[in-house]
Write a structure and sequence with these properties.
Two copies of one chain form a homodimer.
Chain A: H1 18-31, H2 44-51, H3 55-67, E1 71-74, E2 78-81, H4 88-91, E3 96-97, E4 107-117, H5 123-126, E5 135-144, E6 147-157, H6 169-174, H7 177-185, E7 191-199, H8 203-209, E8 217-226, E9 230-239, E10 245-249
Antiparallel strand pairs in A: 1-2, 3-10, 4-5, 5-6, 6-9, 7-8, 8-9
Chain A binds a DNA duplex (21 and 21 nucleotides) through helix 3.
DNA sequence: GCTCATTTGTTCGTATGTATC
DNA sequence: TGATACATACGAACAAATGAG
């Protein structure tokens, strides 16, 4: 049990409450990969004994982490590490609707190719790695009823994702990229940022989407983060919006 | 005190916990406008006496509503109704950035005009009112350093916002629309949905934004909701994205 | 500037109920 | 069935912030 430390770590005289100190200790073990997604953390009673605090204080620390999405609890079983914390909803990056009351479309993924490329600006700057660090480039098309709707290009640091190009490409069809990355590399997605714009597609995007270069498309830039605000993926995407529009909810 | 009811309302034998029953009673008073935004709710001790439950149970009910954003507490003062529940961040609809690490731009608002218009499809359908119900139409331009960046057209039911057109238009310059609506009509914004697309601007939008009709712009449709999932505003907006892009975070 | 009543925040602990395996 | 683990409910004591006087 990684949390079993000397209880001297928790001090009632500290400027922050005891439950908060405990919370941070557990969170640190999660972020450092000592507690992996799916792992069970010590029981309430074990934490009570380890740290010499009351059950109420332990409960408060754990429930805060549950509220924040880092843990989940099952009565009778235990308390477990969540892994990907982001609301599942918002991880479905592309949700196509033609109206507020319309049906959501199911997108299927078609990997186009993965290859090694040299680092470049601005990708490497956004990914917070040196400009000479090489990247993986993953191109995909998302289909809506057999017709292309989104064309995306992802960049991932080679140093972080060794042997990613050996990963069978059928896997990329079956599950979202963030799920594959969490499973294979233990990198959960905690947060992402997005820039949205409108533009005319370049030659490659127009061909991939099957639209004329004169048709405006949505342009999305995305940056995905794991623990400690570490960016791990930089993505550019072009999305057709003739009838369908991309949907977001807050 | 609206919550002071007969304690028979709270039953330990119920299928749901006592703290949850209390939570729902308070929430109902908020949604029904008995407890208005900014109002102080009864103190912990008052609730303990009114309902004959323990202080711990009262605390749990209140803290849950705090977590959900309906209440906030100030030590030494009391517990208050939040009003607008949506994360403040996401209420700033338009956040313009040119890069992930760029500075955010400050937008100023310029009201163009407000007038009464007959209802129309799809606005009235989205607003869940009869097709013959009239609307207010509010046009605004959002400026970034004196140059137009966003042109928006809002539609609000006249039945919900009586005398909105008498509202001094300088007020619309000073505060966001949702803030004005919460203050003047007691309608807090709980949620909103957005559709995002790309298009070429029509004549009016192109002129308002000062761009050629051949330049792709971001097209946003927005629906704002108050309590009970009641829509109160339908908005269409055109946003220039030549250098700057709209920024979203999840 | 100080005191005091009020109100929330933190910590303690016990007892019992319920879900899991 | 029993052991384990979380969920609910109870309540006491003290700390810290607020505002009125």
């Amino acid at each position: 049990m990684s949390q079993i430390r000397h209880s001297a770590k928790l001090r009632a005289s500290a400027p922050v409450p005891i439950y908060y100190q405990l919370q941070e200790l557990i969170l640190k073990d999660i972020e450092n990969g000592i507690l992996l997604p799916g792992a069970m953390i010590p029981t309430e009673q074990q934490l009570v004994r380890s740290y010499g605090v009351s059950i109420g204080t332990v409960k408060k620390a754990i429930l805060n982490l549950v509220h924040q999405g880092y843990l989940y609890r099952i009565q009778g079983k235990g308390t477990f590490v969540t892994g990907t914390t982001l609301r599942r909803e918002s991880l479905r990056y592309y949700r196509l609707l033609d109206n507020f009351d319309g049906q959501e479309c199911n997108l299927s993924v078609k990997p186009i190719g993965i290859r090694k490329v040299p680092g470049f600006v601005p990708a490497n700057r956004f990914l917070e790695i040196r400009a000479d660090q090489p990247l993986f480039e993953l191109k995909r098309v998302f289909l809506m009823d057999e017709t292309p709707a989104v064309f995306s290009i992802s960049y991932l640091p080679q140093s972080l994702f060794k042997k990613l190009s050996d990963y069978p490409s059928v896997e990329f069809e079956k599950k979202p990229l963030y799920a594959a990355i969490e499973e294979k590399y233990g990198i959960p997605t905690i947060r992402n940022r997005e820039l949205i714009g409108a533009c005319l597609p370049d030659t490659e995007a127009a061909r991939a989407l099957g639209v004329p270069k004169s048709q405006p498309v949505l342009y999305l830039e995305m940056l995905a983060f794991t623990y400690r605000n570490r960016p791990y993926e930089y993505r550019r995407a072009y999305c057709i919006t003739n009838a369908k529009k991309v949907f977001r909810e807050y």
